[in-house]
Amino acid sequence: MSSPCAATCSTSLRLPPTILRFRRPGALASVRAARSAPAVSDDLVLRIAEQLEDSVAESSPLLDPLRSASALSLISTRWPTRRSNEAFRFTDISYLRSLPISLPSQALALALAAPSSPYPSCIHFSDGVLTSTSGVHVSALADLPPGPARDRAAAALAASAEFADKDLFYDFNAIGAKDVAVVHVPEGVSMADDPVHIMFSYSGSGDGSMVMSNPRVLVLAEKGAEVAIVEEHFEVGQEGGGCYWANPVMEIIVEENAKVVHSYVQRQSFEAAHTKWTVIQQSKSSKYEFVEVSIGARLNRHNLHIQQLGPETDTQLSAFHFLSQNKQIHDLHSKLILDHPRGLSNQLHKCIASSTGNAIFDGNIKVNRYAQQTDAGQETRCLLLSPKALVNVKPNLQIIADDVKCTHGAAISGEHDPNALYFFQARGIDIKTAADALNFAFGAHVINKIPFKPIEKNTLAQFKELLASSRQE
Questions:
Q1: Distance from CA of residue 410 to its chain's centroid?
Q2: Which of 55, 206, 265, 400 places its Cα 20 to 30 Å from the Cα of 463?
Q3: What is the model's pLDDT at position 240?
Q4: Cα–Cα distance between 171 and 308 in angstroms, integer?
Q5: Rounded distance, CA 282 to CA 260, Å?
Q6: CA atoms within 13 A on the CB side of 181
Q7: d(C-alpha 35, C-alpha 18), whole Å
Q8: 9-40, pLDDT tens digit by residue?
Q9: Rounded-to-integer distance, Cα 441 and Cα 447, Å
Q10: Nearest partner of 467 among 313, 353, 343, 365, judged by Cα
């Protein structure tokens, strides 16, 4: 199976101008005329691709192989529906078609001040535009000088063109990314104590359209390096009602004996759409720790793809989704591929759905033939706080190796353990207060895994506020 970073890509991959450059006069008509097969892209996909390509006319040539491959892919890609695409069987993304798509103004984005950060190394994207970078080992792709860091980034982006598991949203980002923020940690360097804070702020347009942004981040942790990443997606200036479409991609390469600690918080507007790809490649004896907390957005789809490419590889995943609004959809699709001996992985997914929220979890762990002595665990636990809330879970272990220790489990409940409630009541605490405390502890279990106190504290406070408001409805 191809990985996004395991292969190299020759510059001969560049496509004919009529395929790659959608915006050229008559190019789109020529592409349509050349298509004779019935399974082709629909007009909406091509229209968005044209808009995205027009917006990045002056991009880095290092992105050309990736753009070319995604342009070719989109020509034969249809818009996914619940009936036509198994990966979207439980996920209704029609909200993305409900409003006209527009693109952010780069001048306006650059004019906005970057939010303050408690950490010296930080990156800021405003509506998908990379506006600032600060700190050591952090740079925009366009600003990387010739040298090892630039060469590694170029090779990783070219190899990303070969990513076999990508979808429509990954390709949109590849075409629409104006620049790439690069975090390059050299061999043996540790940045574990002071994380790189990556802030994604979104504002929308206010004109009735859905502003689509495509920020992209590449993290390179060389042999023996350590780095912590704190990724935050939030709204600015709309007081919770901004309408926009965030479509980010983050790719992380963890080389031999390296360690990456990755915290990801999504707290966007309840009128926003958020479709995200996180792609991880782990080499021998590397470790990747991931904590996700998603509490915002009307439509939230996260594709998490991890491939272990060496023995003694350790992957730790924790995710918590909270749906507090009507018609809110949160979807986590994860795929973990183990190809080598003595791999270790643990995945915990938790969610709380209230009102008419719909939560989806599709977790796939594939233990291939040579991944002997693997220890892999997967657990999903969900709470339904409303009779109209819905949860679809699909934990999936595919085991081909015969010397493994693998477990998985799923639990969906509409109420807490009566013994736990009785414990509170026996101490004079009423049942509503007891249920609130248990609901908070259910989510805090994952939020407390965020290793950086300012981020953990703010996220806990926002979760507590949303939990209180959802219980009042």
A1: 23
A2: 206
A3: 53
A4: 23
A5: 10
A6: 30
A7: 12
A8: 333 333 333 344 444 333 333 334 334 444 56
A9: 10
A10: 353
